[in-house]
Amino acid sequence: MKKQELSKGKIVIYKSKEGPKLDVRLEEDTVWLMQKQIAILFDTQRPAITKHLNNIFKSGELNKNSVSSILEHTAADGKVYKTQFYNLDAVISVGYRVNSKRATQFRIWATKTLKNHLVKGYTINEKRLLQAKNQLKELQGAVSFLQEKTKHKLLAGQEQEILSLLANYSKTLSILGQYDKGKLPLIKKTKGKFVLVYEDAKQIVQKIKTDLIDKKEASSLFGQESEEKFKAILGNIYQTFDRKEVYSSLEEKAAHLLYFVIKDHPFVDGNKRTASFLFIYFLDRNNFLYRKTGEKKINDNALTALALLIAVSDPKDKNILIKIITNLLT
């Protein structure tokens, strides 16, 4: 057993109507409680728990080495102590021996849960089921959104790219099989180090404009800022509330940069192209553009489709577009 502080990853394993509520550690497919916590759970004294555990081990009902472990935990005084913890097998065994009202409630609950498991073949975790339902609803929303937008005339010829976006997006959720196993990974938000400063961004836009004019692919109106809208967009991306960033992760900043520059039209001309280039530039400077395989997280064709999707989208669809982009980047 790898020693870790039990102040992390807290879950509630059991709570009777009158209480108590115990925050415990889930580790290696079981929970771990100290004798003091077991005593609180069954509304009895710690010496009684010690007696029952000794009898359980003495009778051979359970093997002490299999159901207990010395782990570190942080006490109320802030110091770290090594303490004996017992897993769920030991807790259940004690629960069937303690003579108290709360222990009786626990036995009723445990017996009902075990019976359901034996009869139905599974035990329902309502919280996990609700999370899975929400994730599935999010995926269905993305599917409906992308299917609807494939019919838009400006997206003619982009059907395959939109299908690819959908396939990549659905992979990031992977809820059906992984939720059954309890192994759905949390999306980790990345902290970016590179900050896109307004003056630097203006120079980048000017360079893009010069290159495109040389290729005769843009006019003098390209990249011409309207009423400092672009400056306001960068300000929004890095805005704070109560000393905390509104868009705290790199993925959120990148997604909003792409969305705002396209949707808010800060330039007289060239908003989609400028947004796409700045999006790529921002990710690259944060070393977040490529996957470990060396391929771009969002390739050029997919980015074109994303830019068009944003351009033709209704403002009410902003959240789903941001979710699609951040999931693709993850």
Annotation keywords:
single chain; 330 residues; alpha+beta; Fic-like fold; 5-stranded antiparallel beta sheet; two-stranded antiparallel ribbon; disordered N terminus
Distance, first to last CA: 31 Å
CATH architecture of the largest domain: Orthogonal Bundle
Could you name the ranges where pLDDT drops below 50 across 5 or more consecutive residues? 1-13, 172-188
Strand ordering within the main sheet: 1-2-3-5-4
CATH class of the largest domain: Mainly Alpha
3D architecture notes:
The protein is an alpha+beta fold and 330 residues long. It has 2 domains: 10-120, no CATH class; 187-329, Orthogonal Bundle (Fic-like fold), CATH 1.10.3290. It contains 14 helices and 7 strands. A hairpin with a 5-residue loop joins β4 and β5. The longest helix is centred in the middle third of the chain and has 24 residues, at 126-149. The radius of gyration is 28 Å and the shape is elongated.
How is the secondary structure organized here?
Blueprint: E1 10-12, E2 23-27, E3 30-33, H1 35-41, H2 46-59, H3 64-67, E4 68-74, E5 80-87, H4 88-95, H5 101-120, H6 126-149, H7 159-173, H8 175-181, H9 198-214, H10 229-237, E6 240-241, E7 244-245, H11 250-263, H12 271-285, H13 300-312, H14 318-329
Antiparallel strand pairs: 1-2, 2-3, 3-5, 4-5, 6-7
